[in-house]
Please model this.
Amino acid sequence: MCCLSGKPLSEKERKKDPMGNNRPMDGREWQTDMCHVCCNGACCPCIIAMVCCCPCACYLRNKALQGDMKKYECCQGYICRGCTKKCCGCCENNCPCMTLCCEAFLCNCFAISATRMWVQEERQILTDPCDNRIIRFNNVCQILACFCHILACFCEGFDAIAECIGIIADIIYIITSGCMQAQTYLELSRFPTPDSYPK
Model:
């Protein structure tokens, strides 16, 4: 699959899901796609999420779990479950709020993605093709920035280019994460629980 394709994961790719989840190919749509989140009533949340990314990630996870921190897991079990269980397992039950804060500040991209995946799975929401492209473009930019910084270690004079690409990748990440959090916020605000949707 092209890394910038808008297509959903194929059946084969979905079966490789590390959680073993077989996510449905049909379901409801997000209230807004990430591309139009500012135009669809979430401009302020988008800007706030860009500026205060980590506190927003904590707030949204709590909102997604409907305030029930007994449901909390580090990255909601979506990312490196075995690893996060070993590292965070003892803290998740005893002090979930502190663990969530650490997750949001130390692994921000995973915290944001995990909340979005939790909401999608719980509410059976499909990923918009435009969202897929934005997320994949962001991922490609992060990989490119990492590659350039590694290359700069070995090639003299490549530092400035690596720094420039790194800054561009950071800006793209901030915009993507802001839009992703605003999209999730809008969904949770309009429909606080999975039962809130019209039948």
